[in-house]
Amino acid sequence: MLDITELSRMAGVSSRTIRYYGELGLVKPGGRGPGGRRLFGTDASERLAFISRLKNLGLSLEEIGDLNRSFERGATTAMLFELEAMLLHRLREVESRRQELLTLESDLNQYLEHIRSKTT
Question: Is 109 exposed, middle or buried (0-12, 13-18, 19+ CB in 10 A)?
Answer without folding.
Answer: exposed
